[in-house]
Amino acid sequence: MSEKKIKKVFVEGAIPPDKIAGSIAHHQSKTGIGAHSIFLGQVRADVINEKKVAAIEYTAYEEMAGKKFHEIREAAFSKFDLTCAHIYHSLGTVKAGEICLFVFTSSAHRKAATDACSYLVEEIKAKVPIFGKELFEDETHQWKVNQ
């Protein structure tokens, strides 16, 4: 595994829109970048067995999940010609309609940025041990299964 420092990924609660806008603005000074790709995961108000999801409560073994995020990010750098890759995931309660995952990749060219962004999202969903508890409007809950 890389000797690079493990970056902070977790955000308590929803990822605020100003964090996303600020991240984009921060990259304006990096003029070697020609393309960005962004994925925003949003909590859906699914209806399951006639009960509507009001929020998802995310939990994780933070140290283990942080290492897995780091491995996935480093793998993306080895597979794609990236300039930057940023990943943020929520912990705690995120209401329906709010952002819970923010993946932001940058490269000199669009194909690397978009392919890497898709790669990161799929790897995160498949490999990172984060657990989501769907909280229904009637105050009952169930554990979420990733699809």
From TrEMBL:
Its EC number is 2.8.1.12. Keywords: Molybdenum cofactor biosynthesis. Gene3D superfamilies: Molybdopterin biosynthesis MoaE subunit. Transmembrane segments: none annotated. It catalyses: 2 [molybdopterin-synthase sulfur-carrier protein]-C-terminal-Gly-aminoethanethioate + cyclic pyranopterin phosphate + H2O = molybdopterin + 2 [molybdopterin-synthase sulfur-carrier protein]-C-terminal Gly-Gly + 2 H(+). It is an enzyme of class 2 (transferase). GO terms for biological process: Mo-molybdopterin cofactor biosynthetic process. Pathway: Cofactor biosynthesis; molybdopterin biosynthesis. InterPro entries: MoaE_sf (IPR036563), Mopterin_biosynth_MoaE (IPR003448). One of its GO terms (molecular function) is molybdopterin synthase activity. It comes from the Bacteria. PANTHER family: MOLYBDOPTERIN SYNTHASE RELATED. This is Molybdopterin synthase catalytic subunit.
